[in-house]
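Translate sequence into structure tokens.
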Amino acid sequence: LDAARKVGREQDRWLVVTLHNPTDFACQQMIRDVWNDKAVQEFIRESLLFVFLTVGTSEAERYRQYYPVTAFPHWALLDPRTGKRVRTGSK
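Result follows.
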């Protein structure tokens, strides 16, 4: 996440972070229906940096220490300069 924020600052791009729980069916649906959508992929590729974190990894747990996660699937928009989570959502 720190490396992505650094790249985001350098490229003036915000981060879209998704926290994936492989045991949650709604997370699987989000991958299938949202993140695999060609229009969404193109928009992210042109405008944002995509950060995919999997529950149980050290990076995902570190994210959860800084930003509370109340439900899955989880996504958030982060300002790369400040680290502030400016928008978040879940299903």
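Note: Residues 32 and 57 are 22 Å apart (CA to CA).
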